Structures are given as C-alpha cells and as structure tokens.
Amino acid sequence: MDLKSGYPFWAVKNGLMQAFPPLRTDLRCEVAVIGGGITGALIADELSSHGIDVAVFEQRDIAWGSTAASTALLQYEIDTPMATLARQYGEDNAVLAYRACAEAIPLLQAKARSLRDVDFARVQSLYYASRRRHVDDLREEFALRRKHGFDLQWLSAEALDERFQLKAPAALLTALAASVDPYRFCYRLFGRLQRRGVSVHDRTAIERITPTPRGVDLVTAQGHAIRAGHVVMAAGYANQRWLRHKVASNRSSYAFITDPLPAGQLDFLTDTVLWETARPYLYLRTTGDNRLLVGGQDDTIDVPARRDARVEKKTRKLVKQVQALFPQLPVQPAFSWAGTFAETDDGLPFFGAHPDSGKRVLLAMAYGGNGITYSAIGAGIIRAAIQRQPHPLAQLFSFNRID
C-alpha cells in the first residue's frame, strides 16, 4: 500500500542517499528484521550492538514508507496524558511509560551524535490548552507529573503571550524534547549497520513466514529462502496483516514545511515544539535551516487516492490554524504531504510476541505520535525477549493488556 501522498520534504531534500542491494541468494541469520524504516533501523542497531547476527529486509527503498512522512517530534509526552493512563492502568504503569520515553530522548541524542549530520536538536516542548475548558485537565496533568519528579513549568496566559507570542489560556513547558531529520537518521543508521557487516536488503518483499519449533522460515517474492532464529516485524501498520484481529486503527496525518524564513522571524520557536490539547492536535516545530514545519488535521482516511485528494485542502486548513495563532508569521508552504500511520486506543505501543504468530515472531508496533521514541524503547524490549531476559516494560507494552 502507498503510505504517503504529496512531496515529503525529507525525501526531496535528501534524495536516495545510499543503495542497498536486493537479496539474491538464500540466507541464514539469528534475527530477520522485516521493515526498513526508522523502527527497523533502531531495532537492528540495538541487536547488532549486542553481538546478534541480524539481517534486514525492506520491500521498498529504505526509509521510503512512513519514515519519509514523519515530522519527527521526539517527546517523552505521550498523546494520552499521564493522568488518563493512570486511570486505565494504574499510576505506577503510567509513570513507567512516561519515564521510559524520557530516558529514550538522551539515548536517541547519543545515537544521533555518533552518526552526525541528521539535523538533531534538543528543544523544549510547549503543550498548550486549546480551550479554557481544558485548563482543569492540564492542571491535573501538571500536578501528577510534578508529583513524580518530572521537570516542567506551568505557564499562565500572560506568560505565554510574553514568551511565545501565543494567546492561549495556559500551557505546560518541558525541557526534554528533540527534533531530527528522520529520513537521514534512518539512512545513516542503516549505512553504519552495513559497514559493520549487517545484511541490509531493500526491494526484497517477504511472501511467506513459517514459524517452526527451532526457528522461522521465510521466503521472498523472488523465491529465496531465509532461515532465522527469530523474526522481528517492524513494517509499521502493515504488521497488522499478520494478525487475525486488528489492534490499532489507521489514521492519516497532514503536514507542510516552508522555505527557510529570514533570521529573527522564528526566534520564539527556534528551540520549542508546540502542540495542543485538542484532538486531533496542531503541532509546529522548526528545522536546522530555519523552516517552519506544521502538522495535524488527522483523519481516518487510509485509502491512498482519497488521502491524496485531501492534501491541498488540509494544507490550507493548517495554514489558517497557524495564521490564527501567529498572525505575524508569513506562512507559505513549500512542500506538503500526508502519511498514514496506526494508532492504538490507549496511545501505547505493542512490542513482543502475539498468540497468532508464536514466540519466535516478535512484532514491533511503535504506533502513535511517539513512534521514534517508542522504537528506541522497543528495541530494548525486543532484544530482551530474544535473549530471554526480563524487561520492565515487557508486560505493559505487550498484547496482554488488550486480552
């Protein structure tokens, strides 16, 4: 399925950075990772770094699926507020999930620094109340996070206007967030893996997966056989085709980016990502070359032709939203696009085995707005499962929570 519409900026900016050969022979490995996006890259990097023989297979070009459409806001804040998660799964589990996301930000920063030139930047996150009636929920969220030691500030309407030229009833400001070029990050990771000796193959579709008591047999569309001890499914929302029942809903999100703006015009946003309490939410961030990146207007359309037809209209709506917030900003889209992603009911990901597929087939479903952050966490969960080691998030992020 076509995962995106329009012209995703990252792919246009970077082009085809590196070629990875299709698989042309039979192959054996300890772990076969299916999916050449950022989730597959982070998992393969984690496994390889711990001495596990891994091979990666992508049916398209590397990073050409949802990764190319990602807007790559890296936050510890989950789309589902901590207070809501606490009511669903208990306060301890809610804090565990948020703390794991917080720990993933410096982990991703270290990886980005080791790769270099991926437009990684540490920023702060401003989560503002879209409506006055949202303020009470925002206060509850503030109190719960502060109770558990999270570093954040409460900003009044006056403080928001003074510091960010933003007219909103209130907001939470946190120092722990980041942004990155996800396409470049993904290519750099796979390039390093290939130099380490990891087999990375794009344009290699897997047609059949057969678990056995001692491993998993895979067959490509070209008829080549792959024998692996485990398989990790990191194919985005396409993972659900391997399950009898859906565990998430497909959604499309829309985005645009401007040309570089003159120095000074984005100073109040240079080190800050903005997002709001409304659902679906508007979000804004900047890039290293002073572009404004805007996303939102999510809907439930996942039919490519229908999604494609909406890009222009959705872009106009996003422009109007930004102009209403910041009338002083000249907002002219240079590129606009849409991407289809999956979203769980509770906003949490799934990592691990599913009863439909057996213990040797592990699914990596980094679904929701925290896809890259979740992938960084999930890489450790997947490795622990393969090495038969415990992981503190293995249960919460497993399929057991929907039984």
Automatic annotation (TrEMBL):
Sorted UniProt keywords: Oxidoreductase
Cellular component terms (Gene Ontology): cytoplasm
Keyword Oxidoreductase: yes
Keyword Coiled coil listed: no
Alphabetical list of InterPro entries matching this protein: FAD-dep_OxRdtase, FAD/NAD-bd_sf
Name of one Pfam family that matches: DAO
Domain of life: Bacteria
Start and end residues of each FAD dependent oxidoreductase domain: 31-381
MF-aspect GO terms: oxidoreductase activity
PANTHER family with a match to the protein in the record: PUTATIBE OXIDOREDUCTASE, SARCOSINE DEHYDROGENASE-RELATED
Protein name: Amino acid oxidase
The species this protein was found in: Pseudoxanthomonas dokdonensis
